[in-house]
Amino acid sequence: MWRLGAGLAALALCAPALLAQGQKLPQVPIIRANTTLVDVPVLVLDKKGQPVDTLDQEDFKVFDDGTLQKLTGFDNQPRPISLAIVVDTSEWDAIDQAKRAAEMISAMVVGAQGEASIFIPGPEPKQLLPFTSDSSVLTNALKHLDKSPTAPQGEGAITEPLNLAMLDLRHQPSDHTRAALVISHSSARSGVGAEALLEGAMSDAIPIFHLTPNRPANAPAHNNPDTPAERGTGQGSQRVQAPPAPVDSHGMPTSNPGMGNLDLGPIISGTVGLAGKVFAPHHMDYVYNSGGVTYSAGNDRDFDHKLSLIGDELRAVYHLYYSPSNLAGSMPLHTIAVQLALPATADVGNTSYRRSYVGVINH
Predict the structure, then answer these.
(1) Tens of pLDDT along 291-347?
(2) Bridge partners for 52 per DSSP
(3) pTM score of the predicted model
(4) Distance between terminal CA atoms of the chain?
(5) Pair 98, 149: CB distance under 8 Å
(6) Spatial CA neighbour of 271 closest among 291, 285, 287
(7) Which domains are assigned to the chain?
């Protein structure tokens, strides 16, 4: 039986002699790979917002550009967590909540081989703490966060450090649940940084969770209080804050505080340039597109509840795998749709999942 490896080795040895004799080299078959394995993280919540972790492969249907796909893999086992924590150190609410909830954040991630890292904005956004499994180190770093007086504020405050976090997450073990947690009022949906995050969400199976903090009770007084009442909401205020837009049960922007009505033009044009497709505006939300969820806290108890919920969700992520049946000849950007094959009476509320991917065809 012809073995490709042995055949190539033999060909390499005899090639000089054959060329010297003027003979043609034998034809070796060229192998082309047109297969892309797509990983679709899926989070299923019940009608009370709690994760549903009892579903089987038969309960899911996955569509690629509208075509039903055959699942080639299914994983519903809890995985170690690699979490990139992005704290908006341009605002005191995010800093003080991260400090107050430091032990809770560490306990949520570290343990059972979990790990976390911290990223912050600044003149040059940076990784404040490399990935660590040491809960005391993580807790200490969170408790010693301080204001970055020269950090960009408003819409651009988190996009650059979040992009750094997503790049680093790509190098973490693929058998981990890799995710990013953003603690910030900012929720930019436009600009170069937001476009990069959107394209990253298309390329990676890494969900982004966004938690908008409240002003912590008993928080210390600061020279520059970071509350909407004191910073204002218009031009000339400390931060230009867009009017809140809602978010429905599917995570689409409709009523969630902190989700601004921002200009989506740059992202839409960038997406059309990539794939020639035009998406509905909610698809321009990189949190939504990555399969993550946006939450907003009303008080400290609510912040802790939402944080705990994110921790539960990270441990209840399903991974669906398929090789697209319609990859060849298609546009590079593919849309993903996940449906649950469950009776209408099932206690299921929101389903979040990776919404797209960029197909790679090797010719």
Answers:
(1) 999 999 999 999 999 999 999 999 999 999 999 877 655 557 888 999 999 887 788
(2) none
(3) 0.73
(4) 27
(5) no
(6) 285
(7) 1-31 (no CATH), 34-77+316-363 (2.60.40), 79-315 (3.40.50.410)
